[in-house]
Amino acid sequence: MLVLITYDVSTQDGAGKRRLRKVAKECVNYGQRVQNSVFECILDASQALLLKDKLLSIIDETQDSLRFYNLGNNYETKVEHYGAKESYKAEGVLMV
Amino acid sequence: MLVLITYDVSTQDGAGKRRLRKVAKECVNYGQRVQNSVFECILDASQALLLKDKLLSIIDETQDSLRFYNLGNNYETKVEHYGAKESYKAEGVLMV
User: Fold this and answer.
1) Residue A55 to residue A51: CA distance in whole angstroms
2) Where are the domains of chain B?
3) What topology does CATH give the domain B2-72?
4) B93 touches chain A (CB under 8 A)
5) Burial class (CB within 10 angstroms; exposed 0-12, middle 13-18, buried 19+) of A57
6) CA distance B38 to B58
7) Is residue B53 part of an annotated ligand binding site?
8) A14 touches chain B (CB under 8 A)
9) What is the three-state SS of A13-50?
């Protein structure tokens, strides 16, 4: 199934910047970064649970926001992209 | 149907900052901002087409990225959120 992961991590301090990098690094192990804070991951149920636990252990739930969208198995027709495709380094630095 | 809209707009110049504000302002007319560059919009097919045309007329497809995810009508069980809910002003300024 395709699971879309979107996140907002507060980067007002060093700890937040580290959390942001860690979230991106974890997601890269499971899927494709499609936008700055958006990952598309093809996961089975157990992988989804594992990744969710890892990400929840990284973020600060009082400051950060983490969203999961389950698009199921037949997702090809549910996703549309327009515009440029950025290439990303896992550390969250946008290469332009 | 629930349509998720995610975008990355290049804000390296004034024009990009204006595009970012316009995209957010347009999306606010159709739905709920859930993260910095993520909107959840409840749309019928014609509204979806209309909004898509408007957003495509705003972004610069050589620099910006715009993604649509159709989660259908039975979306409640497909969406999970963890962490803080930021409140946003339509102009794209994150109020923290």
Assistant:
1) 6
2) 2-72
3) Alpha-Beta Plaits (3.30.70)
4) no
5) exposed
6) 16
7) no
8) no
9) CHHHHHHHHHHHHHHHCCEEEEECCEEEEECCHHHHHH
Output the pTM of the full model: 0.88
Nearest Cα to Cα of residue A38 among B2, B34, B25: B34
Instruction: List, for residues B1-22, the tens digit of each pLDDT value.
Output: 999 999 999 999 999 999 999 9
Residue B55: closest CA among chain A residues belongs to which residue?
A82
Token pair for residue B33? 């901002």
The answer to whether the CB of B35 falls within 8 A of the CB of B25 is: no
Alpha-carbon distance values, A72 to A1, A41, B67, B70, B79 (Å): 5, 11, 17, 11, 12
pLDDT digit string (tens) for A34-83?
Answer: 999 999 999 999 999 999 999 999 999 999 999 999 999 999 999 999 99
Q: How far is CA B74 from CA A72, B2, B33, B64, B78, in A?
A: 12, 8, 20, 30, 8
Which residue of chain B has the CA closest to A87?
B65
Q: What DSSP assignment string belongs to B32-65?
A: EEEETTEEEEE--HHHHHHHHHHHHHHS-TTT-E
ipTM score for this prediction: 0.87
Token readout for A83 is 């515009």
